[in-house]
Amino acid sequence: MDNESWACSSVEKDLTRVVSKLEQLHENAAADIGDIATQMSELVEVLSRAEQLVTTLNSSTQVSQDDPMGDGVSMQVETEPTAPQRLTERQVESVRNAIARCNERVQKLSTEHRDLHGSISKIGKAIDRNFSADFSSTMRVDVLQDEENLMLLNKAIAKHYCRQGMDDVARTLIRESKMSPEHAQDVFDSEREFADIYGIWVKIQKRDLTDALKWAKMYSQQLSDRHSLIEFRLHRMRFMQLVSYGLDSQREAISYARLNFKKFAVRYEHEIANLMASFIYLPSGLENSPYKHFMGQEMWTELSFIFLKDACQLLGISKNSALSVVVNAGCTALPALLNIKQVMQSRQVLGMWNGCDELPIEIDLQPEFRFHSIFACPILRQQTSEDNPPKKLTCGHVISNDALHKLSVGHILKCPYCPVEQNAEEAVRIYF
């Protein structure tokens, strides 16, 4: 799994299922409500026709006030009240069918809504199940009772602040934790190089390349030896920045290209030629050209992170503080630790987790969290260490140092994977 923890992934799967159900319910509800509206319209039409029929029948029963005999004699006819007209059997059947279909659609909507409500309530249970509020079972509080360990923790936090350029916060922590002058000086000395790099990184994201270009010029030869792309990309971005200013900066952009692209002419000949073509679009503006992506913040953010990575590799420093590495690795391992803790509690085998340096299970961390060899000897099935390093045989196979000594007869060693006999002393230590 990538940067997402197992618990987040589990909850996300449940949430995706609920969202899918909600979208399906929305489509079904729209169709059902449309059907109900149609049925109601038909019902209103049936009742309207029935009302018109009743009105017509009542009008035909009225007595004409004109004399039918033509003799001028006024006649008054008494009639019994007309019985209320009833709907025909066919109309009644239509009304009943319409009401039944409407009730059926409403019942269906109610059932689907009830099912969705149950699925939504399970999301909360999934969160409670996967995210435990009690993390004390996976930690050793007694470790911080040691003054030396507490000092190391404060030192790691102070270094983290110092790397971010927050020297005032780091000094406050050093003062309040009563850190010794030697440790306090080590905090600033060890992180000063990264603090400078971090300041340049922030400026690149703000589209200020002045300090970055000075740094690249200072380490130009080392960057070239490492085949780094950062120096050319910084000059490329500065050139496009000048071009984006419009026709008034055209002369300055040409002068900048002649001065700084000369050393990259062989390696980046085609790309430099493409950059020069950007002058064609100056009258209409770069925002309406194929070069408009250079004006987006994404390009600047990408450039800043490439600079941070290459600069840290060149200077041999980590781009992540020790504190951030520990926190991120701990967050990745926490769901697995909580699960194994629950299993151990249910099976009453808590003695296996005795607080030693090793965890009761192996946790697969991402490559950025690996700072030592994780090679396991294929013979002894043990992970190598400083005391038991991996050794490469002359035939090319790799085994642990302990396996090398156990398989050797005098100075003669027969490879356990191929029948080549060799001198055990010719095996060399390798580093992963």
Automatic annotation (TrEMBL):
Keywords: Cytoplasm, Metal-binding, Zinc, Zinc-finger. Residues 377-418 form the RING-Gid-type domain. InterPro entries: CRA_dom, CTLH/CRA, CTLH_C, Fyv10_fam, LisH, ZF_RING_GID. GO terms for biological process: positive regulation of proteasomal ubiquitin-dependent protein catabolic process; proteasome-mediated ubiquitin-dependent protein catabolic process. One of its GO terms (cellular component) is nucleus. SMART domains: CRA (SM00757), CTLH (SM00668). Signal peptide: none annotated. Pfam families: CTLH (PF10607). It is found in: Cytoplasm. The keyword GTP-binding does not apply. GO terms for molecular function: ubiquitin protein ligase activity; zinc ion binding. Residues 193-250 form the CTLH domain. A zinc finger (RING-Gid-type) spans 377-418. This is RING-Gid-type domain-containing protein. The lineage of its organism: Eukaryota, Metazoa, Ecdysozoa, Arthropoda, Hexapoda. The gene is Dyak\GE13752.
